[in-house]
Design brief:
This is Probable RNA 2'-phosphotransferase. By secondary structure, the protein is of the alpha+beta class. The chain is built from 6 helices and 9 strands. The protein has 2 domains: about 70 residues, Arc Repressor Mutant, subunit A (Orthogonal Bundle); about 80 residues, Alpha-Beta Barrel (ADP-ribosylation fold).
């Protein structure tokens, strides 16, 4: 499978497993799982064909491990805008986590902190490099440090997704460290 095809299949999966399953007639269970055969049939019926082998390739080689297969089912690891319960237990975060963004969002973040926006949780990275890549998708990246140790001590709950993304409901401004002049 060439890289362009893999990206196309991955984007299709993200759209329909994370955001718009109803668009192709899918009904994920409460944890976000759908039967693989049902997914492939629904995609085919809506004009996008892919094989089980292509699906397995995308899941196995996706650099962000966006999808999980369990038996004959698949779901997105995180990032849903639809209601799902990923069943992730609370986890103790490292002292600092990181969030990649772009400069135009900084004034709102300084005032309101990090909010999930259209997602169910704020996504945080365990390292600056990953946060930099995330921020770079929207322009010149700015990486914020999150005092996760203090948040956890103060009662905020964190979860760790299957692909290593840290999730929390929100990050108030007092726990953020901004680069450069304030």
């Amino acid at each position: 499978m060439d890289e362009r095809r893999a990206v196309k299949v991955s984007k299709y999966l993200s759209r329909h497993l994370r955001h718009e399953p109803e668009r192709i007639g899918l009904t994920p269970d409460p944890a976000g799982w759908v039967e693989i055969d049902t997914l492939i049939s629904a995609a085919t019926a809506h004009g996008f064909r892919f094989t089980r082998e292509e699906l397995d390739h995308v899941v196995a080689t996706n650099d962000k491990q966006r999808f999980v297969i369990d038996g004959g089912r698949i779901r997105a690891s995180q990032g849903h805008s639809i209601q799902v319960d990923l069943g992730l237990p609370p986890a103790t975060p490292p002292p600092y986590l990181y969030h990649g963004t772009v400069a135009p969002h900084l004034s709102a973040i300084r005032a309101e902190g990090l909010r999930p926006m259209t997602r169910h949780a704020v996504h945080l990275s365990a390292d600056r490099e990953t946060a930099t890549r995330v921020g770079a998708r929207r322009g010149r990246p700015v990486v914020l440090s999150v005092d996760a140790r203090a948040m956890h001590r103060d009662g905020y709950v964190f979860h760790l997704s299957a692909n290593g993304v840290w999730l929390t409901a929100a990050v108030p401004p007092r726990y953020l460290r901004f680069p450069g002049p304030h």
